[in-house]
């Protein structure tokens, strides 16, 4: 669940994840984070994230993209 008042301005998705960018430059992501080689390492414990989690909130992101 996103923090109250979060306004999403962009959403992107790959084969095993989704991500959302809010108007203040914060990114939230969720999914399985796996590829043909196994877990991609986006979560500390390597588990599926069913709800959005924040990505390095000290960053001020302008745009997000997924896939190849």
Describe this structure in words.
The chain has strands at 8-13, 17-22, 27-31, 34-35, 38-39, 49-55. With 68 residues, the protein is mostly beta strands. The strands form two sheets. It has a four-stranded antiparallel sheet, with no helix packed on it. The termini are far apart.
Q: What's the arrangement of strands in the largest beta sheet? A: 1-2-3-6
Please give the radius of gyration in angstroms.
12 Å
Shape: globular
Question: In percent terms, what proportion of residues is strand?
Answer: 35-45%
Which stretches are poorly predicted, pLDDT < 50 over at least 5 residues?
none
Largest sheet: 4 strands, antiparallel
For the termini, the CA-CA separation is: 27 Å
Structural class: mainly beta
Mean pLDDT: 82
